[in-house]
Amino acid sequence: MASMAAVLSKTPFLSQPLTKSPNSDALPFAAVSFPSLRRRGGGGKVAIRAGLIAPDGGKLIELVVEESRRREKKHEAAELPRVVLTAIDLQWMHVLSEGWASPLGGFMRESEFLQTLHFNSLRLDDGSVVNMSVPIVLAIDDEQKALIGESKRVALVDSDGNALAILNDIEIYKHPKEERIARTWGTTAPGLPYVEEAITNAGNWLIGGDLEVLEPVKYNDGLDRFRLSPAELRKELEKRGADAVFAFQLRNPVHNGHALLMTDTRRRLLEMGYKNPILLLHPLGGYTKADDVPLSWRMKQHEKVLEDGVLDPETTVVSIFPSPMHYAGPTEVQWHAKARINAGANFYIVGRDPAGMGHPVEKRDLYDADHGKKVLSMAPGLERLNILPFRVAAYDKTQGKMAFFDPSRPQDFLFISGTKMRTLAKNNENPPDGFMCPSGWKVLVDYYESLTPAGNGRLPEPVSA
């Protein structure tokens, strides 16, 4: 995917004249009318931050140990009680280590956990509030708790026993699984993917503390070069001279409806007076449910979208967001938005039923399709982020391409759901011309062909792209 790396252009940073917010000595802004954006009070004028806004809490909290101290820290870790991390625990450690959850400095202690569950936010020492809607916690069982004993530090290790991090000044507290599930997902119905993967069989205790990660997290899967940290993204965005950054979170292949939305968003920002809005195309790279297309295949499909010119490589940064996926609807979409603030985004595109899924028991959506965008416009700690609601795109049969839906002629439009898209690809059938670039569609077809049942009728494990 060498061509995809070319999206990181070498445009020099262009400084932009800024004025300061009357409510802050640090955050520049410009008041711009944007009728489709709504904030508290229902006014149509919002404070739009020009350029890269400051991270939550004022600075990125990066938790990787300096290279000069790594040998010393590894020796310390060898003498400590050990907690073995699951694959999802490792993904959360990655998230914390790079500052996506700034100002969080480690796995949550009980006070942070309770604030997250009950308020979807954290109150800092200076009285300010930052958004935090999903618990970032580490579970241990009774046996691990006993082995830790009175120690105030533990080593976090992988399944092979290799030390990855040290957790300092630890606090161990009860893991209220039912309350956590009910408040995060709004239901305790069986069949929630993340719950079954990471919570149901997890330990009955949570351990929090200050995190020291011994080395940058690498997966050695051929995709590490796309896993840019918030600091690396900010450096790249500044190098490109971005005076606005609009983030698009996705866990699916990009079709031309997505591309229409993203290019139209850039057009709108240019009309507002921005000179160089940059798209952060930010596929989720952590845990996803079994029927989602794996990350390596999605990245290959995104490469084709850029190669075919559906999106402009000069104004697009493609990077992987390391977070696991909860499928927790309006609760989780706040986390997705908050993390992008820490990467420098001041606009966030939100669509229908963000982070949602079908009800695991009943034949309906688990969440109201409009609640995600409404919650984002009111969420505590997200006041600095400007929310860009989706315009509905569908396949216009009269034009033979994806277009914004025109309610005056609904008979001319064809809605192709994600389920329908996957069914077509599984059956090696083509969607209507203009739905997705042909090379991108072929990647999707190739993925499903790789899942052809073996002679025993069993589906093989998904292969890497």
TrEMBL record:
<dbReference type="InterPro" id="IPR024951">
    <property type="entry name" value="Sulfurylase_cat_dom"/>
</dbReference>
<keyword id="KW-0067">ATP-binding</keyword>
<dbReference type="InterPro" id="IPR002650">
    <property type="entry name" value="Sulphate_adenylyltransferase"/>
</dbReference>
<dbReference type="InterPro" id="IPR014729">
    <property type="entry name" value="Rossmann-like_a/b/a_fold"/>
</dbReference>
<dbReference type="GO" id="GO:0009507">
    <property type="term" value="C:chloroplast"/>
</dbReference>
<dbReference type="GO" id="GO:0004781">
    <property type="term" value="F:sulfate adenylyltransferase (ATP) activity"/>
</dbReference>
<keyword id="KW-0548">Nucleotidyltransferase</keyword>
<dbReference type="InterPro" id="IPR015947">
    <property type="entry name" value="PUA-like_sf"/>
</dbReference>
<comment type="subunit">
    <text>Homotetramer.</text>
</comment>
<dbReference type="InterPro" id="IPR025980">
    <property type="entry name" value="ATP-Sase_PUA-like_dom"/>
</dbReference>
<keyword id="KW-0547">Nucleotide-binding</keyword>
<feature type="domain" description="Sulphate adenylyltransferase catalytic">
    <location>
        <begin position="225"/>
        <end position="446"/>
    </location>
</feature>
<protein>
    <recommendedName>
        <fullName>sulfate adenylyltransferase</fullName>
        <ecNumber>2.7.7.4</ecNumber>
    </recommendedName>
</protein>
<dbReference type="GO" id="GO:0005524">
    <property type="term" value="F:ATP binding"/>
</dbReference>
<comment type="pathway">
    <text>Sulfur metabolism; hydrogen sulfide biosynthesis; sulfite from sulfate: step 1/3.</text>
</comment>
<feature type="domain" description="ATP-sulfurylase PUA-like">
    <location>
        <begin position="53"/>
        <end position="215"/>
    </location>
</feature>
<keyword id="KW-0934">Plastid</keyword>
<keyword id="KW-0808">Transferase</keyword>
<keyword id="KW-0809">Transit peptide</keyword>
<dbReference type="Pfam" id="PF01747">
    <property type="entry name" value="ATP-sulfurylase"/>
</dbReference>
<keyword id="KW-0150">Chloroplast</keyword>
<dbReference type="Pfam" id="PF14306">
    <property type="entry name" value="PUA_2"/>
</dbReference>
<comment type="similarity">
    <text>Belongs to the sulfate adenylyltransferase family.</text>
</comment>
